[in-house]
Design brief:
- The structure holds two protein chains of two kinds.
- By secondary structure, chain A is mainly alpha-helical.
- Chain A has a domain of 81 residues: Four Helix Bundle (Hemerythrin (Met), subunit A).
- Chain A is built from seven helices and no strands.
- In chain A, helix 1 runs antiparallel to helix 2, helix 2 runs antiparallel to helix 3 and helix 6 crosses helix 7.
- The chains are: A mainly alpha, B mainly alpha.
- The interface between A and B is large, with 92 and 75 residues.
Chain lengths: 188, 105
């Protein structure tokens, strides 16, 4: 059963990723990205990371891909890109060769590390020991870890999000009349 | 018996490697800035997948916390990146990555 789930979700992940790679239309690429994200969410559930699976669907497939689609529609660039125009003839074969080399190197590294396995570190404290216990619940364990050990990082991410929102408002707004604002094209 | 075969951490890591490589090839070959961002998301998801696989194998929730923070930073990155893309495409409506050569020396 787990094997079946892994195969189906893996096919979703790889198929969606190849869709992002080869679809010429940006909207189709975004929808292929949703397929990949759902596959990753299924794999998260299979790995007992239920909260992250929910966040994956809500934040990634919900918010981020909708943001992509919103920008595509807003700017009216929902045209198919012509993939036959190739400014550098050598680029695409080189990129495919680099990708094949990357996947084979990473795969060799994974398999080599599996055949000489590192000793599994036993979690030291009770929090880590209870972490993946199905009776305790994934959300509770994750919350305990985030809000105790990583609470400073959590607060800093809120600062990061505020900075990102303010920066985006500044970047994307139209300049008022008579205002020179370099980021939105005062050269027009 | 085929049902007895259980997917191990190695399988998840190999799948994550394939996903990362596809995303990297996408960053190298695609010219639409929005699709470039989607390929970066693919690579981030590959890393998240391997973090979760290791968290399961080690029995340590720290890997899942890291994925949580990676997701937050990815959201911030997409927001700022799309802001930049909007402000570029407003000036040049059909710009692809080959047209953005103002910084070329």
């Amino acid at each position: 059963m787990e094997l079946f789930v892994f195969i189906v979700a893996g096919l979703m992940v790889i198929g969606g990723a190849i869709g992002v790679l080869v679809r010429t239309h940006p909207v189709h690429a975004a929808l292929s990205l949703i397929l990949t994200l759902f596959g990753v969410a299924v794999l998260f559930v299979a790995q007992d990371a239920q909260f992250l699976a929910a966040v994956e669907v809500i934040v990634y497939a919900g918010a981020i891909v909708v943001l992509f689609l919103f920008v595509i529609m807003l700017l009216g660039i929902d045209r198919a890109e012509d993939l036959h125009i190739e400014p550098f003839k050598i680029q695409r074969p080189v990129a495919i060769a680099v990708g094949a080399g990357l996947v084979s190197l990473l795969g060799l590294a994974v398999i080599a590390s599996r055949t000489h396995p590192v000793p599994v570190v036993t979690p030291s404290d009770a929090v880590a020991a209870a972490a993946l216990d199905p009776h305790d619940g994934n959300i509770r364990a994750l919350a305990r870890d985030v809000f105790s050990d990583h609470v400073m990082a959590f607060e800093l991410t809120s600062v990061l999000l505020v900075i990102a929102v303010v920066a985006t408002v500044l970047l994307a707004r139209k300049p008022r009349k008579g205002e020179t604002y370099i980021a939105s094209g005062s050269t027009q | 018996m085929i049902a007895a075969v259980q997917p191990t951490t190695t399988w998840y890591l190999l799948l994550a490697a394939a996903l990362f490589a596809i995303g990297a090839v996408g960053v190298m070959v695609r010219r639409n800035p929005l699709v470039l961002f989607m390929c970066i998301e693919l690579m981030l998801n590959a890393v998240n997948l391997s973090f979760v696989a290791f968290a399961k194998q080690m029995g340590d929730i720290g890997g899942e916390s890291t994925v949580f923070f990676v997701m937050v930073v990815a959201a911030a990155e997409v927001v700022v990146g799309l802001g930049i893309v909007v402000s570029i495409l407003r000036r040049k409506p059909s710009a692809n990555t080959d047209d953005l050569t103002e910084l070329k020396g």
